[in-house]
Amino acid sequence: MKKILAASVLALLTAPAFAAEQSMDKMWGDAVAKLRVQDAGRGQLFNDGNYAMFIHWGLYSLLANKVDGKTYYGIGEWIMHPRMAGIPVEKYKALAKEFNPINFDAADIAKLAKDAGMKYIVITAKHHDGFAMYDSKACDFNIMKATPWAKDPMKELAEACRMEGLGFGFYYSHNQDWTFPGGSGGPKVDANGSAANFDDYFLKKCLPQVEELTTQYGRIEIIWFDTPGNMPKKYVEQLVKVVRQNQPHALISGRAGHDLGDYNTLGDMEVPHRNVEGMWESVDTTNDSWAYAWYDQYWKTPKVILSRLIACVARGGTYMLNIGPASDGSVPERCQRTLRASGEWIRSYPQVVYATEASPWGHALPWGDVTVKGNTLFLAVFEWPGSGKLYLPGLETKIKSVRLLTKTEPKRVSYQSLNAWTVFDLPYLAPDHPVSVIEVELEGLPKVDQSFGIDPNFGTEIPCEFAVVEGAKLTQKRWMEKFGEWKAVYHAHEWSASGKALFEVDVPMAGDCNVSLEYAGEGRLVWRVAVEGGESIQNEQNSSHNYQEFPIGWINFPAAGKYKVAVSCVEGNLKSASLKAIRIVPVRCSGRWEISRSMRE
């Protein structure tokens, strides 16, 4: 099933009718455009579409993170929770009388998703607050019965998705329910004052509602369960059974719990640095909050959206990007604008995103990233080299041809070898924005050396998770910038006096490099950086609880080739020291390194 479309496209491209370059480019676009819900097999929109729309919309959207005149900063869908506004159940349920989304337009939202290049939509049918955004017979706390609007937007959106050729799916919070007796985080007694347990919630509300969602809205691509917590396995098994019986072609999210889902969902807002095996998705949002928050105007630009989308695809996964409509059902104009702009780029270069395989490098490159179709590499260049040279490290498969793709006619690109590197000759100005694409056709399947190359134009940042750590711990750390807005890093910490993090690098030519480290800690710390078998430098810098980049100094690589660079924390509060990444930037003094002055700007 996986990558069926890619194989069919490659077969078409070998036919004589597609010998002309422009015909080939058109065929890529035509073929991926046919990836529609009515033709897709189970999971194909997930595997080959690689891009989806998430929608967080509910009663919480009415508050928009403001309660009794006070703004609560963080994710809006948790506004009721004691860790935010702590709204009592009855007061929260009474808000439904004010919820009147007169500007909701299902056709407009489906069109927005399609314009953005997304292949399916997943929307919150019921979040943790327990309010159902559809006509539920199992519980009257729903948009049809409790609001003056009295419509079922899920029916309208399901039909609009079908009209646009998009897949459709539901988010359902199966464990948490803060307003129904017995739900996790909900009331402990029912309306009669009798004790309520999880069975009361599960049998009276959760299970019947999942039955409703999987039988009343036509074909469903995904049922996206969330936050299973300590929910016993027997309950998840019953939900999975209902989905399998009613929607046998639907996928079940990994957050169902107990490894009963069909794929893995990474942490909120997490885009991985290294390739991830198996079926997985990253869930992200267009600004900071999932649900609408009145103050949140930190929108992702088209360049940021595309960089995170292509990073997920290049790591082997799928990217689901969220919008948070306002309580009236409208989508913020800035959100629409940035989605449509990134979608316009995708329509020009669909072969980079749809039905692709992960990058053989296993990680991003300093100027961008790489996706693959068979013997063809697509280099997505986000940082255009002003030197006119693009450096590709470690490619071992022989090149057949190279073209610079544009929205009009592709242009042939010359190239040469430099030690273990391939150097492409490019125009000094990028042909497209925010991303330019270079197509590299190989004589066989791509084989590469995955070592981090020190790029002559931009230098190279290497996250600590790629290091071999001795005498310290290497673990993932997650924290919130605001409530529910997650950040995550792999860091080397709890350093011993002999601890070190070893980074393997490949330099294309001899010369000096400027080394800096990104770290956090307490007080002044002394770090040592050493080329094994070569020069060693060290320096003292201050630190803080926030990760910051500090210069250490210049270090010399006496010849082109592979090196191991060791980083050690040697003085100060070693237990507090937390290393996130190393950055190595070639120094241009004698012209031996061809390097752009804009590399850090």
Summary tags:
Immunoglobulin-like, 6-stranded mixed sheet, disordered C terminus, Jelly Rolls, alpha/beta, 30 strands, 29% strand
CATH topology of the largest domain: TIM Barrel
Cα-based radius of gyration, to the nearest Å: 26 Å
Strand content: 25-35%
The first-level CATH class name of the largest domain: Alpha Beta
Give me the number of helical elements.
11
Principal-axis shape:
globular
| Low-pLDDT sequence parts | 1-26, 591-601
* Overall pLDDT score: 92
Output the CATH homologous superfamily of the largest domain.
Glycosidases
Alpha-beta classification: alpha/beta
Give the helix proportion (percent range): 10-25%
Number of domains: 3
The termini sit apart by 43 Å
CATH architecture of the largest domain: Alpha-Beta Barrel
Strand order of the largest sheet: 7-6-5-4-1-10-9-8
Biggest β-sheet description: 8 strands, parallel
Number of strands: 30
What does this structure look like?
The protein is α/β, with parallel strands linked by helices. It folds into three domains: 35-352, TIM Barrel (Alpha-Beta Barrel); 368-449, Golgi alpha-mannosidase II (Immunoglobulin-like, Sandwich), CATH 2.60.40; 460-600, Sandwich (Jelly Rolls), CATH 2.60.120.260. The chain is 20% helix and 29% strand. The strands form six sheets. It has an eight-stranded parallel β-sheet with strand order 7-6-5-4-1-10-9-8. Strand 5, helix 8 and strand 6 form a beta-alpha-beta unit. Helix 6 packs across helix 11. The radius of gyration is 26 Å and the shape is globular.
